[in-house]
Amino acid sequence: MKIALVTDTYHPQVNGVVSSVDTIAEELEKEHEVHIFAPTRSERAYSFNSFPFYLWPDYRIAYVRAKTLAKIFEEKDIEIIHVHTPFSLGVSGVGAARHLTLPAVGTFHTLLPEYTHYISETLGLLLRRFGWRYVNWFYGRFNAVTVPSTPIKESLVKRGLKNVHVIPNAVNVDLFHPGKEPPSSDPCILFVGRLGKEKRLEVLIDAASSVLEEYPKAKFQIIGRGIHEDWYKKIVKEKGLSNNFVFEGYVSSPDLIKAYQECDIFAIPSDTETQGLVTLEAMACEKPVIGANALGLKDVITHEVDGYLFQPGNSSELSDYLLQLLEDDKQRREMGKKAREKAKEFSAERIGGQWVNFYSSLLG
């Protein structure tokens, strides 16, 4: 097959969509021809003219007409078009597919309506309503829609979308693997993700106070950047926790893997995850995970088996689970091993096979 992967976000940006596109492209390329189309220049992608998005200058908006993109697809004999983002390039991608009458798949990676506070907190409710209308319009144009978890499928179907299928994002379990025992005897709790309010990092910050009463030298390692980074740092400072929180910013892939391997527990308090790819990366590195009992995380974490699920926003429950794992080395290691086994269910090889079968079903 000749497959086009269309995405509005790609290198040098660092996020789950980029990781997902790279992982599945590498797997599909073993037997198929894959072309990536993105707004930013890179060795792997066909890029277009673009301009920076005013809210996040690192993100770029491509401007290319659907007919222009269709011509490129024709030249490359593309057979199926897989769009990963609902922005300008994604709109042109599905438009090109319709122009050429080629099958098109749209993957719903991000709970877009829950991110409208970036535009205006005052108009939050109105923008969320518009966001869901846009989601219905955009994804209603595809032959099929995929989502990475069952709760997200249920949410989209409830809002009127049809032909929605669950195909999880894949994790490279060879790249993300267990390492040596953590080098320090002081506990380390890791968070990886964009530093935006939707990630609910303040819940982990609140939970830290109780943990530090028992483990005053515990470290909370925060990897990632975002528009609310300074806001989170201010909360940490006001609570007098600056000595225990380390904000690393973005790190290289080898350093990220090392951080997963050397932490004791991975925590993700976000309640808007469509799946939570970073959670799977931590699990692949044999770490127990504690996450909010919401949406996609419920498909990834099995409560009391490979981690714990806590009531969203409940910092007291989160701290209880953190302390329980820190106090029981045996349980922590056993959960970590089970987490690794769970991550293998989402391996690139397994998920890649699902994509090939799915594409084939659309081609007939």
UniProtKB/TrEMBL annotation:
It comes from candidate division MSBL1 archaeon SCGC-AAA261C02. This is Glycosyl transferase family 1. SUPFAM superfamilies: UDP-Glycosyltransferase/glycogen phosphorylase (SSF53756). Residues 180-341 form the Glycosyl transferase family domain. InterPro entries: Glyco_trans_1, Glyco_trans_4-like_N, Glycosyltransferase_grp1. Residues 14-174 form the Glycosyltransferase subfamily 4-like N-terminal domain. The lineage of its organism: Archaea, Methanobacteriati, Methanobacteriota, candidate division MSBL1. GO terms for molecular function: hexosyltransferase activity.
